[in-house]
Fold:
Amino acid sequence: MQETRTIVYIGRRVHHKDVTYGTGEWVQGQHKLVDVAVAFKMLRHPDVYEAGVVEAVSTVVVPEFKNRVPEHELEETVAALDAINTMDPDALCDFVSKNFNQKLDRRKSVANLRRDASLLVHQFGVMDDTR
Structure:
């Protein structure tokens, strides 16, 4: 078993991704157990890292999702994708031109037309009828 040491991130940024030593993402004040050799190198930067006390602290960072998709938009997207999977080529071209003001190449296969329409729905969302 490797010997480890607790390191605390005290840098000026709230979030920090350590690519130099490969210890992953850090949040200000977070404690992590790091290999002793890596910890020795990290402690050369006293403005960013400091030695910590071994505590029962979670090292898992739970990301906070700020831009969650509202439930009604998710339902509209799923309904549009279901409808796309049942459309014929003419209906797919009409759907894309009506909702996204783009033309599809009618020479493509139905599977490719469905894929293109689905990508547009995922990229731009479902347009409402109030335009």
Observations:
- The first strand starts at residue 4 and ends at 9.
